[in-house]
Amino acid sequence: MGVQMVPLYAARIADLGPGDFIKVDCAACGHTAVLAPASLNRRDLSPRNKVLDLKGRREAKRVRTG
Hints:
It is a single chain. The chain has 2 helices and 2 strands, in the order ββαα. The chain has helices at residues 37-41, 61-65; strands at residues 22-25, 32-35. The longest helix has 5 residues, at 37-41. It is globular.
């Protein structure tokens, strides 16, 4: 029996495996990053956060530092 696929609307950071990545686009500057689940944990995000709830919460470091 393989790994159960979770629908995107219900997917949480904890559901991501080591080979999964999230593509994040900064709305302010257009920068694009591909993040591994481990990097999301280092950004003080709870494993219980839904993946789709990350939308609008991340901005590029160069935008934050100005």
